[in-house]
Amino acid sequence: MRKKEEIKSFFSENTETQSNNTLEIKAQRVIFNGEVFTVLKRKNELDKKPPYYLLDLEHKTFLSSLYSTGESNTYLFDVKNKGKYLLRFYSQGYEIEEVK
């Protein structure tokens, strides 16, 4: 099951960095199951937890950490009782793909 939706960044400038086409994903908004989640970065990087996670700012609801896949701009997230998903960021949007 694939779903591609356009998002608007909190940034008005290009979010690409100079190194190897990696996008800055902090503050990006993602719609998942009809709810808006924001990518946040942990203040203190912990050894066991990935630096980025998804949070519904309106309801203060944690969705999942974003696990690096080794592929540029692609992250895995796991939703309790709903499965695992790949989240790919592009310069003008994102794509969510269910992992079966």
In short:
By secondary structure, this protein is an all-beta fold. It has strands spanning 2-5, 29-32, 35-41, 52-56, 61-68, 74-79, 83-90, 93-99.
Descriptive account of the structure:
The chain has 100 residues and is mainly β. It has one domain. The protein contains no helices and 8 strands. The radius of gyration is 13 Å and the shape is globular. Mean pLDDT is 82; it is low at 1-19.
Secondary-structure element order, N to C: EEEEEEEE
Task: Count every helix, treating DSSP H or I runs of 4 or more residues as helices.
Answer: 0
Helix content: under 10%
Mean pLDDT: 82
* Strands, total number: 8
What structural category arises from helix and sheet content?
Answer: mainly beta
Question: How many discrete structural domains?
Answer: 1
Q: What does the main sheet amount to?
A: 8 strands, antiparallel
Q: What integer value in Å does the Rg equal?
A: 13 Å
Low-confidence parts lasting 5 or more residues at pLDDT below 50?
A: 1-19
Q: Reading side by side through the largest sheet, how are the strands ordered? A: 1-8-7-6-5-4-3-2
Give the CA-CA distance, first to last residue: 9 Å
State which percent range the strand residues make up: over 45%
Shape: globular
